[in-house]
Amino acid sequence: MSSPPKLAFHFLLDLHTGVPAYRQIIDQVRGGLASGALSTGDQLPTVRQLAVDLAINPNTVVRAYKELELSGLLETHQGTGTFISAQKLPGSAAERERQLSQIAGDAIARAGAAGFTISELIEQLRAWPTAKPELAYPEAGALESTRPTEDPNDRSLVAGAGPTGSGDPARSPKRTQ
To answer: Which residues lie closer than 8 Å to 67 by C-beta, 6 or more apart?
Structure first.
């Protein structure tokens, strides 16, 4: 009997959500683990490669990887790369139940604030990720950014983006695409 096919995984950033890029990377790795797109032993892109592919500062990727490593989800092996570690389920059954209850409550509150019913939320959760494969990291190894083409008049795209961290487009090096 064959195992179910593994879902493909890649990173996507949405710089217009207000969620920091490092937090989006962390959430996507956790989501990949939850959905089965990532599993123990899978290798993640190098810091440099992910930073280039997502057009973000490498320090952002380092921060995300370090937080994931501290939480026990990643292992970094000098010279070979960063891998999903063999995670142990944290806490007791009661603690896990409390965490799940809090997560569910947060999801219900966010859905309600956006005008959705609990039934609609449950329907979406049951359909995810099969109904919307593009949300489940559609292509293994393919990394992309949803960052729009840079507009020199749009300060939100350049704030802290350059190596100087100045946010000043005149001081930040031009990126070639």
So the answer is: 22, 26
